[in-house]
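Q: Give me the 3D complex with nicotinamide-adenine-dinucleotide.
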Amino acid sequence: VRAWDPDSGVLEQAISWHEHDLAAEDDSGTRVRSLTAAASLEQAVGDADYVQESGPERLDVKREIYALLDRAAPDAAVLASSTSAIDMSSIAQGLAGAPRCIVAHPVNPPHVVPVVEVCAGQATSQDTVLRTMGFLREVGQSPLLLARYIPGFVVNRLQMALLREALSLLDGGVASADAIDAAVRDGLGLRWAIMGPFAVANTNADGGAREYLTRYGPSITYLMGDLGASPVLDAAFIERVGRATDALEHGASRTDLREWRDRLVRGIVALKADDPHPGTGG
Ligand SMILES: NC(=O)c1ccc[n+]([C@@H]2O[C@H](COP(=O)([O-])OP(=O)(O)OC[C@H]3O[C@@H](n4cnc5c(N)ncnc54)[C@H](O)[C@@H]3O)[C@@H](O)[C@H]2O)c1
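A: Here is the predicted complex, encoded as structure tokens.
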């Protein structure tokens, strides 16, 4: 893999981070260097099969980068963007290589979280979709394909639905930030690592999702109508959330918290691989 960034400090940091924390070890315990720094964008992508663009989240900058990539990368290379929100139809508009351009949105922290959202633009070819899905699977990611573009794709829409309600519960004084987080980390989240909302609904009643949605239908409909509105993110409210989240650190540094998070996420991923879905892998 070759990486490039116009800011040489960022590039050096990425290479060193990879060498110290991410690179796989060989039998003797030596880190295998698989990421090298390129001197230019052209050198980075000149003979690439697959390009992952992670430049600034601005349409004008993405369009400039894609014009350069389309000229510099071999015709057969896929040009995938990490964009969290921009439609590939807009980025690749008018570009000769638009059929090979696609969104492949990783999820934070991308070095431990397998899911990648794949979303084609209007001009993206079916071949590009299939090759992107195949490539991501091959490198150990878990790609999910959207049938069409929608702002925030799937992951951030789900994340924002939960964050909106969490902020609303805090704002309304219903529970503390720690109690709301506990509902997820010691409750819902334990299931969510192995089952999404549909599989959860399906296992919540003996008769599966049909019975769950029928028997609890009235209360589900009532609660959905009762959910809080988006809170106003003004300075005072942000400060209130900041004070609440400072307390959740219990004195640990953010670096320690991120390393702990990454370790445990890797552990969960490994557990899932050891004990796969009883229908498909058990
Ligand atoms: N940060 C996240 O949690 C996250 C998660 C998923 C996806 N993304 C997406 O990944 C992309 C990068 O996100 P980020 O948070 O690292 O952004 P960032 O703004 O911190 O970093 C952008 C990088 O692009 C470089 N850059 C600037 N101009 C460039 C150019 N013309 N060509 C190439 N590189 C250039 C910058 O030097 C910088 O290192 C965005 O599209 C973002 O939406 C971010």
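A quick observation: The beta strands are 2-3, 36-37, 50-53, 78-81, 101-106, 115-120, 142-145.
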